[in-house]
Amino acid sequence: MIDHRPYEDLGVMHRDWLTAKLHFAFANMGRPEHRPLGALRVWNDDEFAPRSGFPSHSHENVEIVTNVLEGAITHQDNLGNKARLEAGSVQVMSAGAEIHHSEFNAEPVPARLFQIWIEPRHRGGASRWSSRAFPRADRNGRLMALASGDPSELSALFINADARVLIASMQPGETIVHYLGKGRSAYLVTTVGSIELDGFPIAPRDGAAVTGEPRFSVTSLSETEIVVVEVG
Length: 232
Description:
Elements lengths: L1 E4 L5 E4 L3 E5 L17 E9 L3 E8 L3 E8 L1 E6 L4 E5 L2 E6 L4 E7 L5 E8 L9 E6 L10 E5 L8 E2 L4 E8 L4 E5 L5 E8 L2 E3 L2 E3 L4 E4 L4 E6 L3 E8 L1
Parallel strand pairs: 13-14
Antiparallel strand pairs: 1-20, 2-3, 3-4, 4-11, 5-10, 6-9, 6-11, 7-8, 7-10, 9-12, 13-15, 15-22, 16-21, 17-20, 17-22, 18-19, 18-21
């Protein structure tokens, strides 16, 4: 089954400096019918205004994957990590028992990113942070793992969750078939461009949940990029 969530129908959160489109309802925000998908709790399509961002705040018991799509953000946390992440970079933050961090767009231009929250396999424990740049050429025409709870996926950033975060860049007319394990589901979002998901049209920045299917097929209708979260 495909649950299509058009970009224009998503919940929205506005601040003076932030516009966030919410693929899932969370903390009394978003559309109530957009319920979590297994361990996948949050997927926000965020746009930060220049010279703005979140001051230091805390998280606990959540795996946070941030995929920078445009511009750059600067991360700083109480573990001593500080990094500027440009478009094409991904960071993973395992909150563990508690972590404090800030996310700021220190640039003179807007920044756009996906922020994805996934429930951890185990609560508590030590906090962790890591990041990596993923060149576009490495994901042309195929789904590549950005983050994974499977430690054997050495090219991916590790998360403490039964989940995988995947990305693919596609040219017009290309098709990718992805097989899901038994009892697994997926949520897919296009960053740019249009696709057909098992023949169903998906517009730019739309989301779609795939449940109860052993596989799904994506065909690009234009130059596009897709991000997929697969969960148990």
